[in-house]
């Protein structure tokens, strides 16, 4: 019988997760779920309402009450029906999302939502804790990484594409290092490689090469079992 597949892609910011995960979802016909966008959406809501980023009680309520949707086939993110695709990428939201995502009650609420989104359907899910916490039994797990200077250069490029050319590369590097440190050292679901994840360094590999490498992993796991 056809079984649903979870393809988990974890790794630090700037490793190329979004580009790779989105392409893989298209190629495989799976649903793409960007869990970072969910933490960003809750952070955006908290900033708008002036909720303190360490007020775990109110943040939990926001996480439970938020209706976060991904428009199928597009990279549009909806928060309570509003298109927040652009708004959640602002630097202050990145900073706030990193803090909000360290709150255990927020993680519980969003992990439950992530599991619901993947019910009965094959997904490519990207984040920090997909292979360790959200779906420890995911069929394929990848830990996507890149050298810090490569990750900084990619983030500078992303910001430039958004029209933000004021931020200096060393400032971006410092902010990314801070967020990475917070993501890797928080007590709840820190960013770590799952023992059974495949490590891929995307520093010198073009996106196509990374996609092909992961498709090979998926095919190796799905070719015998009638899994789609
Ligand atoms: O991947 P991103 O930069 O959009 O993620 C935003 C923040 O959310 C980042 O600080 C890491 C955090 N995050 C997390 O803690 N767990 C996830 N599954 C995804 C993102």
Characterise the protein shown here.
- The model has no long low-confidence stretch (mean pLDDT 92).
- A five-stranded parallel sheet has the order 2-6-1-7-8.
- The protein contains nine helices and eight strands.
- It has helices at residues 17-28, 35-49, 56-65, 91-100, 104-117, 130-134, 148-161, 169-185, 207-222, and strands spanning 6-10, 31-34, 68-70, 77-79, 82-83, 123-127, 140-145, 198-201.
- The relative contact order is 0.22.
- With 228 residues, it is an alpha/beta fold.
- The chain has one domain (6-222): P-loop containing nucleotide triphosphate hydrolases (Rossmann fold).
- It is globular.
- The termini are close together.
- The site of 2'-deoxycytidine-5'-monophosphate has 13 residues, from helix 2, helix 4 and helix 8.
Assign the CATH topology.
Rossmann fold
**What is the number of independent domains?**
1
Number of helices: 9
- Could you describe the largest sheet, including whether it forms a barrel? 5 strands, parallel
What would you say the CATH architecture is?
3-Layer(aba) Sandwich
CATH class: Alpha Beta
Number of strands: 8
Q: Helices and strands, in N-to-C order?
A: EHEHHEEEHHEHEHHEH
Strand content: 5-15%
Helical/strand content category = alpha/beta
Ranges where pLDDT stays below 50 over 5 or more residues in a row are none
Averaged pLDDT: 92
Within the largest sheet, what's the order of strands?
Answer: 2-6-1-7-8
């Amino acid at each position: 019988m056809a079984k649903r597949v979870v393809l988990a892609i974890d790794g630090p910011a700037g490793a190329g997760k979004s580009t790779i995960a989105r392409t893989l979802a298209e190629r495989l016909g799976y649903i793409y779920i960007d869990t970072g966008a969910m933490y960003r959406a809750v952070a955006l809501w908290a900033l708008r309402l002036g909720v303190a980023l360490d007020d775990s009680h109110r943040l939990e309520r926001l996480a439970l009450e938020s209706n976060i949707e991904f428009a199928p086939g597009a990279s549009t993110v909806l928060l309570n029906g509003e298109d927040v695709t652009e708004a959640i990428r602002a630097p202050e939201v990145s900073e706030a999302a990193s803090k909000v995502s360290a709150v255990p009650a927020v993680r519980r609420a969003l992990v439950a939502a992530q599991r619901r989104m993947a019910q009965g359907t094959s997904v490519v899910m990207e984040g920090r804790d997909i292979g360790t916490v959200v779906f420890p039994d995911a069929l394929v797990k990848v830990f996507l990484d890149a050298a810090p200077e490569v990750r900084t250069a990619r983030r500078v490029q992303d910001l430039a594409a958004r029209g933000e050319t004021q931020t200096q590369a060393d400032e971006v590097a410092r902010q990314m290092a801070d967020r990475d440190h917070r993501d890797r050292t928080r007590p709840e679901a820190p960013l770590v490689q799952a023992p059974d994840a495949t490590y891929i360094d995307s520093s010198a590999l073009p996106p196509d090469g990374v996609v092909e490498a992961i498709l090979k992993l998926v095919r190796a796991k799905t070719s015998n079992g009638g899994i789609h």
